[in-house]
Amino acid sequence: MKILTEHIDVQGIETIDVFRKKGGYSAVEKALKTMTPDEVTEEVKKSGIRGRGGAGFPMGMKWSFLAKPEGVPRYLVCNADESEPGTFKDHYLMMKSPHTLIEGMIVSSYALGANTSYIYVRGELMYVVNILEKAIQEAYDKGLLGKNILGSGYDLDLFVQPGGGAYICGEETALLESLEGKRGNPRNKPPFPAVKGLWQCPTVVNNVESIAATSWIINNGGDEYAKIGIGRSTGTKLISASGHVRKPGVYEIPLGITVEDFIFADEWCGGIRDGHKLKAVVAGGSSVPILPAELILKTVNGENRLMTYESLSDGGFITGTMLGSGGFVVMDETTCIVHNTLTFGRFYHHESCGQCSPCREGTGWMDKVLYRIEHGKGRQEDIDLLVDVAKKIEGNTICPLGEAASWPVAAAIRHFRDEFEWHIKHPEKATQKGAVFMREGASWSL
Amino acid sequence: MKVTIDNITVDVAPGTTIMQAARQIGPHIAPPAMCYYEPLKASGGKCRGCLVKVTAGSEKDPRPMPKLVPACITQIQEGMVVENTINEQVLEVRKGIVEFLLLNHPLDCPICDQAGECDLQNFTFEHGVSKTRTVEERNTFDPVDLGPNIKLNMNRCILCYRCVYTADQITDGRVHGVMNRGDHAEISTYIEKAIDNDFSGNIIDVCPVGALTDKTYRFKSRVWFSKPVDASCDCGKCSGKVTLWYRGDEVIRVTARKNEWGEVKEFICNTCRFERKKTSDWTIEGPSKVPHNSVISANKYGANKITPAFPLKQAAEQYKKIDDNRDRSFLAPQKQLN
After folding, report:
1. CB–CB of A396 and B177 under 8 A?
2. Ranges for the NADH-ubiquinone oxidoreductase 51kDa subunit iron-sulphur binding domain (chain A) (predicted)?
3. Which residue among A98, A116, B83, B107 is the one 20 to 30 A from B19 at the CA level?
């Protein structure tokens, strides 16, 4: 079942002619000519689609929170600042099929009553900006953007804004600040963007994948979309699979397949690379808790873990994780978890905006301690220190970057404490190139 | 609107923040404010020192808030119940915040001009722990001049953004801001710009730590050796209402007047601050009010004043006491050892 990537490999799909031949922009015609904005919102609500950027907040509900005061413009902003390590789905979608996003943007903007919309693209992806701008120009030329779209009387201007290269600008309020031309510092909430967003006007910020899915929802109906998936995890999801699998890449999966299938079935990742065993998985981008092989395949109750929001978070953070943004990083037994945690820690240290003290100082501290442990200078008390620092950052920051930085560290210690201890007790062994701790009796041990 | 903070209920106007409500109750209830500064719009929410627990959101919706909230920017609701100093979690988190703020702080209070009137010092004394857990090397920056009158020591900065807001809201045209990010973020001027306008000196007053210091005052004295006196002058640019800091007969520093929360009442101009340093420039109004628990009041007024005669007198008293009671046997001729 493919929704977003159905025609992605068609030659020339990035041009508007080929895209329209494959049924593109039919949702725009349907929505603008036959539906009211409220009906569009209603369909999206019915679909049960949840935000694909990481938090998984129901999209229809987010739209219905949008304040609609008279005489104040409203904005739709597409968050294409995909910078989470391990996540590269939006990049792939925009690069291959920019019109899928533009079509979704028109439909969504119409539903929200926005006459100006923005796509905020990660600064490192300048060529994607060029692809999008070219596609937007094509849409303008065909009368799909601009004044009086398809004779419906609805006006929409769509702009692409490249970011300056900061992970934090993927946080919605930091993104808005950056879009306004300021330093990308997250804002204090409340007020939420739905009330005071871009230029203090009501704004909805949605992920690329969420917006792109709306056109299919309009074409086929929200109920049809809700039939895919399990429970409150409806529809399909792009998963960026990377790491030690046979076939890394972007896969569109119907939510509800088992994790085991996703890793081992030939249709998806095709299993772990030859001669190696699954050790751990980071299931939703670098900020979600890492899980060891036995917990990612089965929940603690012995049920098969599914690729859904609920199943992956089964067991809370003690034995569970999150679907997050779908950055699925698979690690085999040659991966040193301490080194991996240091890599993540260094990333968050580098990307903290420095606005609020727990995150600014805490991420740097964790990075330095992890660096010492990895390089054979760890102390026994460092492990508990890391746990405590992570705990003191979590929940006390302005934006979720604090949590994103502390979860991977806390989870790595929770599930692989022996590995950290081994690094501290045997620095001479641990600092050798390629040295990895093998837990006795673990399924991945050689 | 009624709000209960640490079991004390106050009636406040709608739109009041938890911080303002707590300040109405009194200084012992008010959460620490490292970045929040009432005269500056949009300040607050950054240091996280004022995080409090809301155990009941409002009368209508009495659920507790899931996370700790910053008191300085959270507006109260009718019937809100807040726990500040009586909540273990809050105190534990504050310990953490102190630890974070001091993590890359040089702890050079003995040579810092701000010592004695430093918000970070007060916060640390109140909520910190005496031992550090860090063994990491601290991030360091070189001190730089921000214009002719202001010295920036970035090592001490806690990135409260107060000086940025001051430059935005008080002066005409901000030329400094925060560069870089994370723990390498620093206050800096735009390339080849110097902070030089009539009200720039106010960023020294708003600085909660010793990051921004007055170059005409640096290393001249400790604050507790100087004596604050309210004075005014007929200044064309500002209200002319200042505090003069005397050491002997000499005015060693001029600052704006501050309220009991350490916030500037009226911003003053650079001429008053940096150039009018003679008593004859000013009309003296009388001694400034200093909170009794402040180190600045020590050694100056009233009963606890330490005059040169005082230690002598005290020593004499103690000597006498000891003299009466002490064992005099050692004074007796000692027995000769055979």
Report:
1. no
2. 338-383
3. B107
Distance of alpha carbon B173 from its chain centroid, rounded?
26
Last residue of a domain, one of A205, A227, A249: A227
Q: Residues A173, A192: one domain?
A: yes
pLDDT at B148 over 90: no
| Domain tally, chain A | 3
Q: Which residues of B touch A402 (CB under 8 A)?
A: none
Residues A345 and A294 in one domain: no
3-class DSSP state of B222? coil
Question: Which residue is it, tokens 């600045």?
Answer: B296
Tokens, residue A199: 């230029």
Task: Report the interhelical angle of A98-112 vs A26-34 (nearest 10°).
Answer: 10
The answer to whether the CB of A226 falls within 8 A of the CB of A236 is no
Q: Which of A312, A332, A352 lies at the terminal end of a domain, its last residue?
A: A332
C-alpha to C-alpha distance for A182 and A270, rounded to whole angstroms: 45
Are A133 and A121 in a shared domain?
yes
The pLDDT value given to residue B318: 64
The whole domain housing A272 covers 230-332
CATH code of A150's domain: 3.40.50.11540
Asked if the Cβ–Cβ distance from B139 to A364 is below 8 Å, we say yes
**Could you give the ipTM of this predicted complex?**
0.89
CATH class for the domain made up of B104-214? alpha beta
A170 and A186 assigned to the same domain: yes
Is residue A8 a part of any domain in this protein?
Answer: no
Written as one letter, the residue type at A77 is V
Assigned CATH topology for domain B2-95: Ubiquitin-like (UB roll) (3.10.20)
User: What 3-state DSSP class applies to B243?
Assistant: strand
Give the total residue count for chain A.
446
CB burial readout B99-122, b (16+ within 10 A) else e: bbbbbbbbeebeebbbbbbbbbbb
pLDDT tens-place string over residues B165-211 = 999 998 888 888 898 888 889 998 887 777 888 888 999 999 999 99
Selected for mutation to probe chain A from B48, B54, B159, B178 (highest A CB count within 10 Å) is: B48
The answer, for A183 touching chain B at a CB cutoff of 8 Å, is: yes
Best B103, B124, B132, B141 residue to mutate vs chain A (most A CBs within 10 Å): B103
pLDDT (tens digit, 9 = 90+) per residue, B59-95?
A: 888 999 999 999 999 999 999 999 998 899 999 999 9
